[in-house]
Amino acid sequence: MDGGTVRASILQIQVDPDESVESRRERVASLVRAQAGADVVVLPELWPVGAFAHDRFAAEAEEADPAKGPTALAMSAAARDAGVWLHAGSVVEKGEEAGALYNTSLVFSPSGELAATYRKIHRFGFDQGEAALMTAGTTPVTVAHPQATLGLATCYDLRFPELFRALVDAGAQVLVVPAGWPAKRADHWSLFARTRAVENQCFVVACGTAGTHAGVAQAGRSAVIDPWGEVLAETDSTEETVLTADLDLTQVEKVRESFPVLKDRVL
């Protein structure tokens, strides 16, 4: 990877139950286009439908293929128009198996190509909600951005450090985590985001959601954290906002060389 500085823009999207999915797609696409000049743009988890709108998952399920799915098609065009790498958050994806649904993240290149998909491995709900309605993904995913290797995770994944170790072993320097994290556990969100940065000596780009998802108030608190655990940028707002930070990728190797904790791993 070329290294250098990566400008990351987080779009903490408002999910308003009175706004149609089609209208929200158009609005979000316009917000993405406004980020021309960024290197990476990140959207939240399940922003088209809402992470807790369980009764709408099946009806709003889409194809991940940008030639077919309406969200993928809109985000592909927005990434191309802005000339940015776009982590388009996640959608409810129709699986190949009859009736299967996945919580699937979509990453587009500046040409609008679908560069990667990631099916969320850890589903939230304790055998209810997402955990009951969605099929679990099985494979950690990294993306070869020209300047850095990105490791993909989604919301509840943040509680499971094993996934992040696998991403680091695959070369990840920047961990990208879109979420629909509830406000009542906002402190956990901030704690885990910093913890994953410190223990893996990576940048963490954590994109929360504004508003409510099916009546569940969202934490917001989007943040960018460096490999030493310092918060480079953070919003304490639960409203829709854009958060931008510059990631000096040389920090990853500097921190790992000056404090080589990863070399002492046994398991």
TrEMBL record:
- CDD domains registered for this protein in UniProt: nitrilase_5
Any idea where the CN hydrolase domain is?
6-249
Entry keyword annotation includes Hydrolase: yes
Signal sequence residues: none
UniProt keywords (A-Z) are:
Hydrolase
What GO MF terms are annotated?
A: hydrolase activity
Similarity section: Belongs to the carbon-nitrogen hydrolase superfamily. NIT1/NIT2 family.
Annotated protein name in UniProt: Carbon-nitrogen family hydrolase
User: What organism, scientifically named, is this protein from?
Assistant: Streptomyces reniochalinae
